[in-house]
Design a protein that fits this description.
By secondary structure, the chain is α/β, with parallel strands linked by helices. The protein has helices spanning about 15-30, 45-55, 65-70, 90-95, 110-125, 140-150, 170-180; strands at about 5-10, 35-40, 60-65, 80-85, 100-105, 130-135, 165. The chain has one domain (about 5-180): Rossmann fold, CATH 3.40.50.
Length: about 190
C-alpha cells in the first residue's frame, strides 16, 4: 500500500512556468489523496512547488536535506519533518527508506542521478517500488530514446523498459503508482 511518495525534481527557479504548474498540481494531488511527500527538502524550484502544493491540502511533507545545503538556507522551513543528512548518499538512502514509490518530474543532473539509481536498484532486484517519470512538455523523450537504444544495442534487456512508466501528467502518474503491480524481473545479464 502506497503511503509515502518520493518526488525527484529540479531546484531551479529559472524554469518555465509550465513546469512549476505541473509540480504544484502533483503536490496538491498528493495532499488530496492523503499521500505523504518525501523529497529533497528545498523551498526553491519545483521542489518548493510540490511541497507547498501538498501543504495546501493538509498533506505531510518530509524533507531530506544534506548538511551542506542547509548552510545555503534553501530548506523548506514549513516541512513537517526536516531530516539533515551528512551527504548526498545518505540523503538518497533516507529518501528510499521513507518512500513507497518514486515520481520523477523534470530536473537536472541531480534529478537524473536519483532516478537512475532507483532504476538500477530495480534492475538488480534491490527494490520493487514503482518508478514513474512525468513527461511534462516531452522532457523525458530523449531519455526514453536513449534507454531504447541501450536495448536495441544489447546493453540492456527489453524488460528494462518495463521497470518504470512514463506518464504525461500527475494524475496518470499517481494512478500508475496506486495500481502498480511489480513486473517479473529477469536476470540483469544478457
Amino acid at each position: 500500500m502506497i503511503q509515502s511518495v518520493c518526488v525527484f525534481c529540479s531546484s531551479s527557479d529559472s524554469v518555465d512556468g509550465v513546469y512549476r504548474e505541473v509540480a504544484t498540481h502533483l503536490g496538491r494531488k498528493l495532499g488530496q489523496l492523503g499521500l505523504n511527500l518525501v523529497y529533497g527538502g528545498a523551498s526553491i524550484g519545483l521542489m518548493g512547488c510540490v511541497a507547498r502544493g501538498v501543504h495546501e491540502f493538509g498533506g505531510r511533507v518530509t524533507g531530506v536535506l544534506p548538511e551542506f545545503f542547509k548552510i545555503k538556507e534553501i530548506e523548506y522551513g514549513e516541512a513537517d519533518e526536516l531530516i539533515v543528512t551528512r551527504d548526498m548518499r545518505e540523503r538518497k538512502a533516507v529518501m528510499d527508506q521513507k518512500s513507497d514509490a518514486f515520481i520523477t518530474l523534470p530536473g537536472g543532473i541531480g534529478t537524473m542521478e536519483e532516478a537512475m539509481e532507483i532504476l538500477s536498484m530495480k534492475q538488480l532486484k534491490l527494490t520493487l517500488k514503482p518508478l514513474v517519470f512525468i513527461n511534462t512538455c516531452n522532457f523525458y523523450d530523449g531519455l526514453i530514446s536513449n534507454l531504447q537504444e541501450m536495448v536495441d544495442l544489447n546493453f540492456a534487456k527489453q524488460e528494462t523498459l518495463d521497470l518504470f512508466a512514463v506518464e504525461p501528467g500527475p494524475d496518470e502518474a499517481l494512478d500508475y503508482i496506486r495500481n502498480y503491480q511489480p513486473p517479473k524481473i529477469p536476470s540483469k545479464w544478457l
